[in-house]
Amino acid sequence: MKEIFTLGTSTRSLEEFLEILKKYKIKLVVDVRRFPTSKLFSHFKKENLRKILKQNQIEYLHLEALGGFRKGGYKNYMKTKEFKEALKKLMKLAKKRKVVLICREKFPWKCHRASISQKLEENGFKVIHIIEKDKTWQAKKSKKVQLSFI
Questions:
Q1: Any idea what the CATH number is for the domain that residue 40 is in?
Q2: Global pTM value
Q3: What is the Rg, in whole angstroms, of the alpha carbon atoms belonging to the chain?
Q4: Which domain holds residue 65?
Q5: Residue 146 located in a structural domain
Q6: Ordered mean pLDDT values, 10 residues apiece, the chain (150 residues)
């Protein structure tokens, strides 16, 4: 089973961020922020991040088509051709190298990374969410339960 990681940039220092990428041997950072910038952490601005990663022999790709904040909600957006094509591109890339999806939110269950992860798992990927350098989390597979009300 092919693995893919996710990571929230949150309030991490550049050093901490790079340390995490190196620990998990990440070769490609796929930025799934709709607006890849940061007012407080300039190292997470797209143009800066791209340069920093290149200096550390890590590729960078901004996949805006997987970004959140969509009119009509993200779940509806996931049904679009644009989303599906971007997801296919991501899966193709992840079959060739170690990939991490990044977004701002630290916890994946509070973020659209959870929705992307669910689609990846449906397509045979093992998704590992990096919370801290030495702490990961994986969503539990749950059977869909249908509730009935009497």
A1: 3.40.1010
A2: 0.91
A3: 16
A4: 2-137
A5: no
A6: 95 98 98 96 98 98 96 96 98 96 96 96 96 92 44
